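Postdoc handover notes: sequence design on the structure in folder B. Input C-alpha cells:
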C-alpha cells in the first residue's frame, strides 16, 4: 500500500477533552494522525476519528516517562512530524501537604518532563527540515499561584514561559510555537484531579471543542499564544498586574475543597 502523502500530526492526551477535540481539528485540516494517551480510551478516540476517513494510528503510552515518549516516537517510523500538539496533562487538587507524593510527582512528570522531552525530540527533527508547528497546552492557571492546586499551576506556569522562550529561540526559522491557555473547560480533568468539591469544579465551564478550534487556528496562524474566552482574558490580565498574594487568595476562592454542590 502506498504511504499517505498527507502531513502527519501528533496529538498527545487525545483520548478525551481538549486533546480529543484538537485531534478532530487536525483531521479536519487534512492531517494524518498519531494520537496517544495513557489509557485504553485512546482506541475509541481513534475509531471515532477514522470514521471521517482520516488515517489514524493510536498509541497507549505513559508520557510521564521518557520510555513512553520513545514508544510514541517509534510509532512515527521515521516519518516527519509537521504538527506537534503537546496537550497531555494531569491535574491534582487539595493542599500540597495533603497530596500523595507519587501523584504530585506524576503531575510534574506528565506536564513538564515528558512534554519537554517530546518537544525537544520532535523539535530537533523539525529544525533539521526547517519546518513545523508546535502547539503547547498551557493554562491561564499558570498566571497565578495555585492555592490548593500548587503543583498543577506551577507546571502550567513553566509551560507558558517555556513556550515563549523556545519560540524566541526559533524566531529565525520556519518553525512556530504557540501556547494555548484555556480556562476551566468541560472535561474529565476536574473529576480525575479530585476537584469536584471545589467551586471551580462545580461551575459552568467552556466547551472543549471551541477551545480546541481557537487553539488550532492560532497555531495555523503562527500566533505566540491564545487565551480562549473573554472571561479568561480578563482574569489573565488581572493576574498579570495584581500582587501574587491577592491572586493566591483569589485562587483559594476557586479551588478550596469541601464545597457542596448547590
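Designed sequence:
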Amino acid at each position: 500500500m502506498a504511504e499517505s502523502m498527507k502531513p502527519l500530526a501528533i496529538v498527545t492526551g487525545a483520548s478525551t477533552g481538549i486533546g480529543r477535540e484538537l485531534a478532530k481539528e487536525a483531521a479536519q485540516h487534512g492531517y494524518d494522525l498519531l494520537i496517544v494517551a495513557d489509557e485504553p480510551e485512546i482506541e475509541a478516540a481513534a475509531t471515532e476519528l477514522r470514521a471521517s476517513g482520516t488515517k489514524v494510528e493510536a498509541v497507549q503510552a505513559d508520557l510521564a516517562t521518557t520510555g513512553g515518549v520513545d514508544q510514541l516516537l517509534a510509532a512515527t517510523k521515521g516519518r516527519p512530524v509537521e504538527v506537534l500538539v503537546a496537550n497531555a496533562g494531569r491535574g491534582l487538587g487539595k493542599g500540597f501537604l495533603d497530596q500523595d507524593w507519587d501523584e504530585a510527582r506524576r503531575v510534574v512528570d506528565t506536564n513538564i518532563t515528558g512534554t519537554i522531552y517530546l518537544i525537544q525530540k520532535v523539535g530537533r527533527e523539525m529544525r533539521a527540515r526547517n519546518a513545523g508547528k508546535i502547539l503547547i497546552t498551557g493554562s491561564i492557571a499558570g498566571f497565578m499561584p495555585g492555592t490548593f492546586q500548587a503543583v498543577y499551576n506551577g507546571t502550567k506556569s513553566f509551560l507558558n514561559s517555556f513556550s515563549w522562550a523556545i519560540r524566541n529561540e526559533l524566531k529565525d526559522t520556519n518553525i512556530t510555537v504557540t501556547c494555548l491557555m484555556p480556562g476551566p473547560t468541560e472535561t474529565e480533568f476536574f473529576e480525575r484531579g479530585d476537584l469536584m468539591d471545589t467551586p471551580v469544579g462545580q461551575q459552568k465551564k467552556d466547551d472543549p471543542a471551541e477551545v480546541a478550534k481557537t487553539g488550532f487556528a492560532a497555531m495555523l496562524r503562527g500566533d505566540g499564544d491564545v487565551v480562549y474566552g473573554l472571561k479568561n482574558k480578563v482574569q489573565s490580565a488581572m493576574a498579570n498586574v495584581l500582587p501574587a498574594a491577592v491572586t493566591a487568595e483569589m485562587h483559594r476562592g476557586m479551588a478550596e475543597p469541601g464545597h457542596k454542590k448547590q
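Context for whoever picks this up: The mean pLDDT is 91. Don't rerun without checking with the PI first.
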